[in-house]
Amino acid sequence: MTTSDSGKDITLRIAQNPEADELLGRSPLAALVGMLLDQQVPMEWAFTGPYTLAERMGSDDLDAGRIAAYDPDAFTELFTTKPALHRYPGSMAQRVQQLCQFLVAEYDGDASAVWRDAATGDELLERLNALPGFGTQKARIFLALLGKQFGVRPKGWREAAGPYGEAGSHRSVADITGPESLSEVRAYKQEAKAAAKAAKTKTTAKTTAKTTAKTTKTAKSAKKPGG
Question: Is 188 within 8 Å of 195 (Cβ atoms)?
């Protein structure tokens, strides 16, 4: 447990593991790494990753400088050792190391410096979006997490986070405060995925229909005298 910018103690319930959540709450780098790992695996798995990685490195926290300088093959082994830290441990090990190398080069290895003095939500979003492995969506989700659970709230942070910044929403990891909200976020993600799949299927069907109609029309024209 640590203290947020608003002076309140931070107690997270994202990983659904007390030790892993305690690390996320007190370690800015652990939170960033957890967000980086949060793709194509269950959220609990992703955000437990930083704790498992710290254990395998023989430490109670993650250090950007140490990770940045780690032998790449040996660092990959930390991810691939069973149980693996991710579904794609090799590529994610590389991304985590690239993230830490960037933090060392741009922020002297201090992950919290990414957001500590950001004056506006847009500025913070730009900084997060510049991090290796952080696209716009991931940056917005992490911005929402900072605002909703870490008390990092520069002017316009909700707007910069987009729909993920909405109060009372259950769209992302930023809204997970326990088992019940985890289930709600997971349900939302499944519904969104189903809707996207349905929309893609509909678009494909329309494209196929247009192509078929065009082909039929061309064939008919070719059969006409002089065609």
Answer: no
